[in-house]
Design a protein that fits this description.
Layout: E1 16-20, E2 30-33, E3 37-38, H1 47-66, E4 69-70, E5 79-81, E6 118-120, E7 127-128, E8 138-139, E9 158-159, H2 161-177, H3 182-185, H4 191-197, H5 208-220, H6 224-227, H7 240-259
Antiparallel strand pairs: 1-2, 3-5, 4-7, 5-6, 8-9
Helix pairs in contact: 1-2, 1-5, 2-4
Length: 280
């Protein structure tokens, strides 16, 4: 990827560090990318942290659609997070172990302390369309992992891939980021947007530009106290001692963040963590 797309703050594609050509197999290429972690581990501590995650995913898809790229496989496992929350490198196959496998490691910082960047990965099914194709209509012979997409019920008919991305994105936010508990978590305000994104009729779904605008408008109306509130997914199913272990550190950090005027929504591009990616 070249400039200015590479440095666009909405760009959430995984940066490519280097391309290696094996001497014994020149026909193959090895792509070197930064080490990343699962986007949902550890879990969000506040509503503001979840808001930041949703915002970054939205802007990442917005960036793709602005460049006429449909991802076509937006799902939980195709979202990653940088390693800002970890104080040291971890093993790529065992995030709970150090790189040399000699000790246990874990995320030691919250997202509010060291705002991470989220990435959209796996472009195996992605396709870029010519600007003259407005909108691009094609038969969907290959499709992603979300089998609930209404268009997939009629694969013999041409469909616009961009509303399909919006539908899948709505499902990711609804089912994975918010765990199907939007109202209980304090995200009742996002339900109308998610409902429109997952409308049965693709013509009734908002474009990703409209999604971003509506989301930003809703977030701007939220109070800081709301954004600092505890993110408590499946809270009713947890034992009292687990709640205690989660709540006490959260309360101390909340007091500290209020006193230090730390933004309730982590970062923003100007404050994004400057911790270099762990590549080892």
């Amino acid at each position: 990827m070249e400039e200015p797309q590479k440095s666009d703050p909405r760009n959430h594609c995984m940066p490519l560090i280097e391309i290696l050509q094996p001497a014994d197999d020149p026909a193959e290429s090895l792509l070197v990318m930064a080490l990343c972690s699962k986007w949902d581990s550890p879990e969000f501590e506040t509503l503001g942290e979840a808001v930041d995650c949703i915002r970054q995913i939205f802007e990442g898809v917005h960036f793709l659609h602005d460049h006429r790229i449909a991802h076509r496989d937006l799902k939980n496992s195709n979202i990653m997070m940088d390693t800002s929350l970890y104080p040291e490198q971890f093993h790529p196959l065992r995030p709970d172990k150090s790189q040399d496998y000699t000790k246990d490691v874990s995320a030691r910082f919250s997202r509010t302390q060291r705002p991470p960047k989220y990435y959209i990965i796996d472009y195996g099914l992605a396709r870029r369309y010519d600007a003259s194709e407005a909108p691009p209509m094609e038969q969907t012979d290959i499709f992603g992992s979300d089998f609930t997409v209404p268009e997939f019920k009629a694969l013999d008919k041409p469909h616009n891939p961009f509303p399909i991305d919006v539908y899948c994105l709505g499902n990711v936010i609804q089912k994975d980021v918010l765990g199907g508990e939007a109202e209980e978590l304090g995200f009742g305000w996002i339900i109308p947007l998610i409902r429109d994104m997952t409308a049965e009729d693709p013509n009734q779904r908002p474009t990703i530009s409209e999604v971003v605008l509506r989301f930003d408008t809703e977030v701007a109306s939220l109070k800081a106290s709301t954004l600092r509130a505890k993110y408590a997914l499946s809270w009713g199913e947890r034992e009292w001692h687990e709640k205690l272990v989660k709540t006490v550190p959260y309360l101390f950090r909340r007091i500290r963040f209020v006193l230090t005027r730390t933004p309730p929504i982590p970062g923003g591009q100007a404050n994004r963590s400057t911790v270099p990616p762990l590549t080892g």
